[in-house]
Amino acid sequence: MADEEIAHTDASKTLAKEVYGEKVVYDVAAGESKAVPWTLRLRALAAKYGAEEAGIERIPTELRTNQNPFDMFTLFASANVCTATLAFGTLGPALFGLGWWDSFLALLFFNIIGAIPPSLIATFGPKTGLRTMVVNRYSFGWWPSKLVALLNGVNMIGWAMVNTIAGAVILYDVGQTKLPLSVAVLLIGLIAIIISITGYQWVHKYERFSWIIMAVCFCIVAGFGAKHFVNVPMGKGPSETSGILSFGTAIWAFQVSWGGLSADYAVYMREDRKSFWVFFWTFNGLFWGGFLVECLGAALMTTVSGSPIFEAAYDRGGVGALLGQLFEGYGTNTRNFGYLIETILSLSVIAVVTANVYSLGLNIQTTSDALIKVPRFVWSLLGGAAFLIAAIAGRNQLQEVMENFLNVIAYWLTPWLTIMLLEHFLWRRRLGYNLEAWNKPSLLPKGFAAIFSFLVGTVICILCMSQTWWVGPIALGVGNAPFGTDISWELGLAVTAALYVPLRFMERKYIGL
């Protein structure tokens, strides 16, 4: 077998059979022996032990499985039914000054609309057999798409960092401060990295069941917390409006960030899987998994305003201590039971960190053809090391990290998702995707319309942003000083759509593709 044939084969089992353990192969056509690159031997070794060795290459029809779209529900339900989602729900009362019912309504509305884009992106997986950032090439072209892949890679690292810290603070409470927070971060991160490097199949297996266990634990938390929850009244006036819209931006970002990887987990489904069911199950996993746990987080945060004891616990140890306080006052056995529940819940973030690190490896490969030769799991491993270092460094600032990171990613994700979905529904659904062009720059769009619309849309988002370190002039103009009102994603979406549609028509007319 020639080197070129080996390098471009998509059949993992064939690759493992023919290359594993062999440093030299005999090329019949050339009549000579050739050395097999170490990268191919490493990929074959991964396949031999059941790990996914494939990277961003298109998954052909013959390698598709009978995977059920319901797997998309279990995957995203597991990724959302975790302590990171619980911690996020607390931001409504804690950061944006909202009461119970306004937090509830904001979570309901913005989760519904936020779950739609990534659910639509997920349908691209079975139809194309391509990962999310590769499908991105069909609107952004070869070179601009690399910028998006880099941004999404940073997104994955940031999410892995936030989620790991969210689990670690619970484990820290279980250890009653004797277990260093840095060690808790390291433990959770390492488990997630190990699962993620094994690949697609094992990620799905883990996610298929973890959400059930975590859902039971959260029901127990809700039962213990019910008598402590307080119906904090809604605010009024401009400050309330600003709080709702700013919290809405964070909720939107929390959901749409899945758009950067949702197709990654559907590429092995058969092409004849109906898009409706892929969308339906992805949406339900994202919405219900996020909304219900976030509501519990908002309710948990109301205990702070209803009790000095809970307020002191929150000041002492944040969300982790607040969760632990629910089990106090019932005796030693109940408190020990509470520690067990907290321990299980601290590990819930493994489901989401696993998905982040898995897709991170794919993102890295998308930035350069040369990187495809190195197996995906190697890049996931290196990316995992990077997020662990960041998580250990930021372990004591969960709320600040979550607030700033969530809003920042919304500023570029919204224009990107707008372009991806417009491209699909206005052009690709009718004209289709040339699936042979995924790694051929000459057969892909130039990306002029996409990158211009993307950059302008992102700048508009920045002008509308409201952060502690920067308040855009538009945000300040529509809200009260000094923080204004964050309307970044709403205006960014509108401007990007208004630019991309006419520019893309012209690009197709005068340049083609």
From TrEMBL:
<dbReference type="GO" id="GO:0022857">
    <property type="term" value="F:transmembrane transporter activity"/>
</dbReference>
<dbReference type="GO" id="GO:0015851">
    <property type="term" value="P:nucleobase transport"/>
</dbReference>
<feature type="transmembrane region" description="Helical">
    <location>
        <begin position="147"/>
        <end position="172"/>
    </location>
</feature>
<feature type="transmembrane region" description="Helical">
    <location>
        <begin position="405"/>
        <end position="427"/>
    </location>
</feature>
<feature type="transmembrane region" description="Helical">
    <location>
        <begin position="209"/>
        <end position="230"/>
    </location>
</feature>
<keyword id="KW-0472">Membrane</keyword>
<feature type="transmembrane region" description="Helical">
    <location>
        <begin position="374"/>
        <end position="393"/>
    </location>
</feature>
<dbReference type="InterPro" id="IPR026030">
    <property type="entry name" value="Pur-cyt_permease_Fcy2/21/22"/>
</dbReference>
<feature type="transmembrane region" description="Helical">
    <location>
        <begin position="104"/>
        <end position="126"/>
    </location>
</feature>
<comment type="similarity">
    <text>Belongs to the purine-cytosine permease (2.A.39) family.</text>
</comment>
<feature type="transmembrane region" description="Helical">
    <location>
        <begin position="483"/>
        <end position="503"/>
    </location>
</feature>
<feature type="transmembrane region" description="Helical">
    <location>
        <begin position="73"/>
        <end position="98"/>
    </location>
</feature>
<dbReference type="Pfam" id="PF02133">
    <property type="entry name" value="Transp_cyt_pur"/>
</dbReference>
<feature type="transmembrane region" description="Helical">
    <location>
        <begin position="448"/>
        <end position="471"/>
    </location>
</feature>
<dbReference type="GO" id="GO:0005886">
    <property type="term" value="C:plasma membrane"/>
</dbReference>
<keyword id="KW-1133">Transmembrane helix</keyword>
<feature type="transmembrane region" description="Helical">
    <location>
        <begin position="250"/>
        <end position="269"/>
    </location>
</feature>
<keyword id="KW-0812">Transmembrane</keyword>
<feature type="transmembrane region" description="Helical">
    <location>
        <begin position="276"/>
        <end position="301"/>
    </location>
</feature>
<keyword id="KW-0813">Transport</keyword>
<protein>
    <submittedName>
        <fullName>Putative purine-cytosine permease FCY2</fullName>
    </submittedName>
</protein>
<feature type="transmembrane region" description="Helical">
    <location>
        <begin position="337"/>
        <end position="362"/>
    </location>
</feature>
<keyword id="KW-0597">Phosphoprotein</keyword>
<feature type="transmembrane region" description="Helical">
    <location>
        <begin position="178"/>
        <end position="197"/>
    </location>
</feature>
<dbReference type="InterPro" id="IPR001248">
    <property type="entry name" value="Pur-cyt_permease"/>
</dbReference>
